Amino acid sequence: MYTKPTLVFCFLVLMLIVKQATPRVEFTNLKCMSVDKDFAEFSECTLKSINRTYKYISARVSLYKLPITKARVNFGLYKRFNGYKPFLYNQTINACHFFKHQKAHPVAKYFFDMIKEVSNLNHSCPYNHDIIVEKASTDMVNHHITNILSYPEGDYMLETHWILNDKYAGGIKVYLSLF
């Protein structure tokens, strides 16, 4: 029969192994595309590696035709299988409605929660300023990937398309690896 200290020790060892087996996120690339540079333009779109374990992405969209009163976002998650193939999600949401009713869009909220602390996308329309995401780190994404909703290991791409004031403004592709 096992004694209590032996069971506690086995449990602690098991927890340590499980913690080490959880996925780790690494950003591999970031691509930003403006369609009409008279309407909106990416003035910053960077993936920065501080050291081997700390990377972050930053993006700034300069909006030239203000105010933005209508905003729709299409986002899709893709996994690499001989090229990037659709994986789980592909949705289009009314962003103005989303910020008022986040619980009505749980998938969009899951992805938005990864960047909400480092962006100025914290209110509904109208937008009278540039859109900024500043230093979204792999640690933030890793928390969501491991603690909230687990994904299998592999290479992924999150692709977004932005339609502002009924005009296609551009898109962002975030590439990452889980291992």
Automatic annotation (TrEMBL):
Residues 1-21 form the signal peptide. Keywords: Signal. It holds the Pfam family DUF1091. InterPro entries: DUF1091. It comes from Drosophila yakuba. This is Drosophila melanogaster. It comes from the Eukaryota. The lineage of its organism: Eukaryota, Metazoa, Ecdysozoa, Arthropoda, Hexapoda.
